[in-house]
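Entry 12.
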Amino acid sequence: MPVLFLVPSTWDAWREWLREDLPALVAIVLVVIAVDFIFRRLVSRVLRRAIVRASRVRHEEPRLVERRADTLVATFNWLFAIFLMFIGTALVLDTLGLNVSALVASVGVAGLAIGLGAQTLIRDVINGTFILLEDQYGVGDVVTVAGISGAVVEINPRRTVLRDLNGHVHTIPNSAISVATNMTSGFSRINLDVTVPREIGTEDAIRMVNDACDALAAARPADILSAPSVLRIDQLTEGGVILKVLGDVRPATQWELTGELRRLIKQRFDQAGADLLQPLRPIVLREEAARDGGNGKKEEPSEDPAVTDNPFGG
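Predicted 3D structure (tokens):
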């Protein structure tokens, strides 16, 4: 049986080993350390510059950009460190006289079994790497992944950790993520439906809603990217109309600003003596009735359009 690993047994053998093999081992360690240092500096610089350029297009906050850069840099350093560890270990073992090829062959069956058992882990790492490379979301973003919504508190190649509005922490393997919805990427949007009773004229209602939007933009100019306003009459109902209000705001501020806009709108309608909370039954127009089979029945709304049940407070 061939000797795979040679251990010096005499002083002369140790001196021979120190003269011939020790410099090679030291050189391997120094090269691995140098490559790791250069890679960390290079990747950190290149990634941060790329992320800063992308953030300028998306109008992201410097704080969010810095957190995303830290996440990506740490992930790439982690992956490269594992790669260097395997390469360096193989070189060291080869220098010490260990037949690496024979060792790999001897543990091939065990490696195959481990590989089959680690398929999910491999899928986690591959999917997580693409999530990070494509910058689908980062730490601090509010997302919905694998049917769970919350703020991202940690992301690495294996898992994503979310904290929801109740404070619950959810750990999600990246292989379980097929669709990721980022609600705070670049900018967020106020999307509000306002019910208008028939006692208030439509033009007067639009004026009052826009007046509330202007008041919000004046009170929170730093958070408003595009001042909200009435986009259109979204629905016709038996009791009035429903107005659609849209506006762009800083990421993760849409829920707070939507709540404040509701308060301002309610304030103005109260002054006009209108009740925004009364249910409004939608009118089925002729083309809609024909599409439903010509029965002409009026549909009952599933919920009050004025109330939005948003898991993040919007």
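Annotation: The radius of gyration is 31 Å. Residues 1-5, 287-292, 296-309 have pLDDT under 50 and may be disordered.
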